[in-house]
Design a protein that fits this description.
By secondary structure, the protein is of the alpha/beta class. The protein has helices spanning 26-33, 37-44, 54-66, 73-80, 96-111, 125-137, 153-161, 184-197, 213-228, 245-256, 270-282, 316-331, and strands at 2-6, 10-15, 18-19, 85-90, 115-120, 143-145, 165-168, 179-182, 203-207, 238-240, 264-267, 292-294, 311-313, 341-343, 346-348. The radius of gyration is 26 Å and the shape is elongated.
C-alpha cells in the first residue's frame, strides 16, 4: 500500500491494485471536476432536475469511475432521512425459488443505489417477528416479505404503522394493492387441464398448506379444473406434502399405497414433484408410462432429473424486481400502488407427462 497525490493536493491510498475509494470525499471529487460538491451529488444520484451540461456530467462520471468513488452512506442517510437499505424476509434461502426472487430484488435495488439485508424465517412466525424487529431496529426504508400468511397479524401491524412494504409471491386475504404474485389459481387450472386433455381422470394433488395463498390458490385451481370437466373429486387424492422434496416424497408414498392409485399428479411446486419422482423410482413406478407428474415454478432442477419435469413457469427474477421497484416507489413517495401485480405463468412441457395408461 502507498499513497499518491491527486490533483488539488488530495491523496488516495493504492490498495490491492486500485485506489482506496474511502480516501476520496464528495467535496474532493467536486474539486477535481471543477464544480460544487452538490452538483456532483446530483449527477451521481441521477437527479432528474440537475442542470449541468453533458460535458460536465461526463467529466464527473469519468472521475468517479477512475477513483472508484463510493458515497458516504451514513452522511447521506443523515441528510435524506433514509438509510438506502431495504429488508427482505423469505421462508427458506435453501429453496432455489427464493434465491432467484431475491436476485431480482437485489438487481432492481442496485440500480437505485439501495442495498438489501436478508432474513430467513424457516416459515416460522416467531422467526418472522424477530426478523421484522431486527430490520426495523436498523431503520430500513421498507420491507419485502415473501413470508405472508393469508391471515397474518405481523402484516396487519406493519400496515397500521404505515411502514412501506410489499408482499412478493404470497399475499394476505383479501389481496391488497402492495402485492406482486404469480397467477397461482390460473396456473393450477392450466396444469390440471393439460393432464385431463391426455385422458387422465385419477389426478392427485400434492398440496401446500392452505394457510398461505400459494397452497390455497393452487388447490382451488386443481378442484376447479376437475369440476369444469365434470370429474368427481376423490378426497383420498388430495394429500398435503408441504413445499419441500421430503414432503412430496412422503405424499407420493401415501398415494401409491391407495387401492386405486392416481395415473397423474399435480404437485404444488417443483421440489415436491421431485420428491414424488423419487418415491416412484423406489417403488418401481415409471413416469410417465405409469404415472404422469407436473410441477410448478420451473426451477433449474426441473431439467436435471430423469424424466425432465413438466411444470408451470413463473418469471421469478421479474417478480423480485417488480417487488423492489414497487417498494421504492412507496418509500420514496413516488407512487402508491392501487392494484396488485399478478404475473402470468406458462406451461412448460417436458418428459414427465404422457397419456393415461391403457
Amino acid at each position: 500500500m502507498f499513497t499518491q497525490a491527486l490533483p488539488g493536493g488530495f491523496c488516495a491510498r493504492w490498495v490491492m491494485g486500485r485506489y482506496d475509494a474511502m480516501a476520496l470525499t464528495l467535496k474532493q471529487l467536486g474539486a477535481l471536476a471543477g464544480v460544487h460538491a452538490s452538483t456532483v451529488a446530483r449527477v451521481l444520484n441521477g437527479d432528474p432536475d440537475q442542470r449541468v451540461s453533458a460535458e460536465v456530467r461526463q467529466r464527473i462520471l469519468k472521475l468517479a469511475a477512475e477513483h472508484h468513488y463510493q458515497p458516504n452512506r451514513i452522511a447521506r442517510s443523515l441528510r435524506t432521512k433514509r438509510s438506502a437499505v431495504v429488508g427482505a424476509l423469505i421462508p427458506d434461502i435453501a429453496n432455489p425459488f427464493f434465491a432467484l426472487v431475491f436476485r431480482g430484488i437485489e438487481d432492481a435495488l442496485a440500480k437505485r443505489d439501495f442495498t438489501v439485508i436478508l432474513a430467513n424465517t424457516d416459515d416460522q412466525p416467531e422467526r418472522e417477528a424477530n426478523g421484522l424487529a431486527m430490520m426495523q431496529g436498523r431503520q430500513v426504508d421498507g420491507l419485502i416479505l415473501a413470508t405472508a400468511r393469508r391471515c397474518d397479524p405481523a402484516i396487519e401491524a406493519l400496515a397500521a404503522l404505515g411502514t412501506p412494504f410489499v408482499l412478493v409471491n404470497r399475499h394476505t386475504e383479501p389481496i391488497t394493492p402492495n402485492v406482486v404474485a404469480p397467477d397461482d389459481f390460473g396456473g393450477a387450472v392450466t396444469a390440471v387441464e393439460h393432464l385431463l386433455s391426455l385422458g387422465h381422470r385419477r389426478i392427485a394433488h400434492i398440496a401446500g398448506s392452505d394457510a398461505v395463498s400459494t397452497g390455497y390458490a393452487r388447490q382451488a385451481g386443481y378442484l376447479t379444473a376437475l369440476q369444469r370437466h365434470h370429474v368427481a373429486h376423490d378426497p383420498a387424492l388430495l394429500v398435503e406434502g408441504n413445499y419441500r422434496e421430503s414432503g412430496g416424497y412422503e405424499a407420493m408414498r401415501r398415494l401409491l399405497q391407495l387401492e386405486s392409485p392416481p395415473t397423474a399428479v399435480f404437485a404444488v411446486n417443483d421440489l415436491a414433484a421431485l420428491g414424488a419422482l423419487r418415491a416412484m423410482r423406489e417403488a418401481g413406478v415409471r413416469s410417465p408410462e405409469q404415472v404422469s407428474i407436473i410441477g410448478f415454478n420451473d426451477l433449474t432442477i426441473a431439467t436435471q432429473t430423469s424424466p425432465q419435469l413438466t411444470t408451470m413457469r413463473l418469471p421469478l427474477h421479474e417478480m423480485g424486481a417488480l417487488a423492489a421497484e414497487r417498494l421504492l416507489a412507496q418509500a420514496l413517495g413516488e407512487q402508491t400502488p392501487t392494484e396488485p401485480i399478478i404475473l402470468p405463468v406458462s406451461l412448460i412441457i417436458r418428459e414427465s407427462v404422457g397419456p393415461v395408461p391403457a
